[in-house]
Amino acid sequence: MINTHDKLSRFFISKKLGEVKGRALLRVDINVPVKDGKISRNNLRLKECAKSIEVYAHNGIIPIVLSHQGRIGDGDYLEGMEQHAQAIEALTKGVSVKYADSLTEDATRKAASRLKQGEALFLKNVRSHKDEKTEFGSIAQMANNGMVKSLSKVAEFYINDAPATMHRSDTSLVGFTHVMPSYLGLQMEKELNILNEIMAHLKEGKRTAIIFGGRKWEKFEYVYEISRHKNVKILSGGIPGESLCYVNNSSSFNKQNKKFISESGSLDTARKMVKNFSDRIIFPVEFVLDDRMNVGLDELKESNGMIMDIGDSTLNHFYDAITESEMIIYAGPVGVYEKGYNQTVRLITRFMGVKAMNYTFGGNSADSMDDIGLDRAYDLLSGKRITSGGSALAYLADKQLPVLGAFENKR
Known about the structure:
Layout: H1 2-8, E1 22-28, E2 34-35, E3 38-39, H2 44-57, E4 61-66, H3 82-91, E5 96-100, H4 105-113, E6 119-123, H5 139-143, H6 146-151, E7 157-161, H7 171-174, E8 182-184, H8 186-204, E9 208-212, H9 219-226, E10 232-236, H10 238-248, H11 255-262, H12 267-277, E11 281-282, E12 286-289, E13 294-296, H13 297-300, E14 307-310, H14 312-323, E15 327-330, H15 343-352, E16 357-360, H16 364-372, H17 375-380, E17 384-385, H18 390-396, H19 402-408
Parallel strand pairs: 1-4, 1-7, 4-6, 5-6, 7-8, 9-10, 9-15, 10-11, 15-16, 16-17
Antiparallel strand pairs: 2-3, 12-13, 12-14
Helix pairs in contact: 2-3, 9-18, 10-12, 14-15
């Protein structure tokens, strides 16, 4: 990845600020938590996006912003991005943010034609366009689809500033790179530099604790690859942690949790982890059930209720591993913190005070810090937070990332 990073540096927009001016299609990722139709405004992705847009606007670039919010059919899906536009305007200085509830060429061209220096335009959720999630058989087909053909006409160049989605191949992420002058944005550059820094520490053999959990078990495979570095200890809650514990001691689980884990899709990876890295896994020994009672493994089989968090004894084992670490990667909450299960809060508070290199990856990890009000304290203690979540893990796992690949292959 280090060589890849060097190859990509020629596309960094930072090298062209003040030189490249005009209207730019700007792809960002400001996909944030939504509750009752309202977006969460205290969010790292919004804050970082606002910083970049402010720099672009003050250097002669007029951003026409493409982003998404949720997936069609999910509870956090919003077709309109007007709330996001308002939030960005509130976070910037001297930037007027407009909104056009459209992705069609004519309507977008009309709105874009009225833009002035110091202004930005947000468009509706890019996932509402039929071409966004369509799989095309070739680069030529993608470059000639309706979205690319129409929206490429409303701007002079394209900036990809969505590091949190660099592991995806959606049309708005990779299609425009093939037909327009294209650059990697300020946030993309910042996060690639941080990921390169982490990769160097892993290769140097720094003692590392990777904390992860949550409900997206597919990230588990990335953590498996990262764990090939023999200096990495694995501290896991959520579906991954339960799966590791189940593989190691399935007879201790009650029927409810057995069924849940068996259907989670995570067991194949968990079996590989236990087979190859069991000496570096800090296995959960106690859980918190939905009645908020701490239950040890020897009691779980006879207990009723679903696992919602790691227990106190598990937390203490995690504390010990963190204290011994030179680098801490927080890549996901260990319990259902959004429902008041608080071991994630206690764990964050503890590792913030450890004299180690601290990194927090985006998605649920960064959201958990924002939600519990520890984001500013973490930043003040020199922790580094990035908006990338799954994509950061994919980068460290040395996976092929379509967004970066599109630039590497650009002529």
